[in-house]
Amino acid sequence: MTAKEVLIWPDPNLSKTSMPIEEVDESIRALASELIATMEYEGNSAGIAAPQIGIHKRIFIAHIPPSDNNGNGTNGPEAFINPEFILKEGDLHWEEGCLSIPGERGWVTRSSRVIMRYLDLNGEQQEKEAFDYLAGCFQHEADHLDGKLWIDYQSPLKRNLVRKKMLKLKKQNG
Ligand code: NI
Questions:
Q1: What are the CB-based long-range contacts (under 8 Å, 24+) for 111-116?
Q2: Of 56, 61, 145, 170, whose CB is crowded by the most CB atoms within 10 A?
Q3: For the segment 116-135, what is each residue's pLDDT rounded down to a tens digit?
Q4: pLDDT, mean of residues 10-34
């Protein structure tokens, strides 16, 4: 599978709500492989969501080695389909980055422990408990499916500053 181009904020496609996946078939498994190839091509990233490559379907990939988060990680780069939080508790105040806002970071408050219900690539319903780094990653990626990025939680001043930098970057990249 080949890597796709990652959309850079403020691309309006990043702000659209994605549609639930009705059937987990070969096309969805191919999309998951494309997302993984794109994430790996882009280098150091814990996750990527389908709208970041312009596909408005509710699927994201997370990749957090368990050893990086007290044993609570993913099984390699793992796909999560139609995610839904059935529990959210505690506060996690941390700094996030995103492939769609390269080189920038911002502070966001997430829940520190979540239970997420989702479909796996076989179409089986699963539930996974996540805390700390993995919980934050799940919430960041699920936000993408609702058209939200970490930048949306920042002050107007920071948003404008980052918007200018990204527009300049897009111009340079042609
Ligand atoms: Ni992101």
A1: 111/85, 111/135, 111/139, 113/87, 113/88, 113/89, 114/85, 114/87, 114/88, 114/89, 114/138, 114/139, 115/85, 115/86, 115/87, 116/80, 116/83, 116/84, 116/85, 116/86, 116/142
A2: 61
A3: 999 999 999 999 999 999 99
A4: 98
**Active centre residues (catalytic):** 141
Residues around ligand 1, an ion, CB closer than 5 A: 98
Residue 153 Cα to ligand 1 midpoint, Å, equals: 13
Spacing, Cα 71 to ligand 1 middle (Å): 23
Distance of CA 165 from the midpoint of ligand 1 (Å): 17
Fold of 12-172: Peptide Deformylase (3.90.45)
Listed by start position, the domains of the chain span: 12-172
The answer to whether residue 80 scores a pLDDT higher than 80 is yes
How high is the pLDDT of residue 82?
98
Arithmetic mean of pLDDT over the chain = 96
pTM of the model: 0.97
Distance CA 81, CA 100 (A): 20
